[in-house]
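The methods section describes the discrete structure representation at length, but only in general terms. Since the whole study asks how a given chain folds, the encoding of that fold should be made plain. An entry of this sort, consisting of the sequence and the corresponding backbone structure tokens, reads as follows:

. . .
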Amino acid sequence: MYPSIQKIETPTPLQIELARETRENISTILRTMLTRLDADEDMAVYHFTGTETIKVAQLIFRGTHLVMVVGEDAKSNFTISICHLDAINLTCKIVKLAKNEPRKQAIGFISQDDPTADIGKALLR
């Protein structure tokens, strides 16, 4: 039959702190890049899964290890990549906007540590 599923251990204080620090570092890097944009520039954030490239709309942090990367694939299909926090692979690009083109919406950050976060609503289009 199936192998037994071992009990999932409660995260240690160190794991919790490292996850929080990683979330904050990603957020700080993206916010810093946004502050340096010229009026005719925007920032695009991509996540590479190995087989898919996702243009990121939201990063949802679930607990200390899991990240849901929400966005669109190359054909504009709604896409979610679920990965371990250690495996998240983001590329940030500064891109020129066409004349009169508005900037896209900023990347959303949602953490289950935030009691006001509604992850279900975040996934609605």
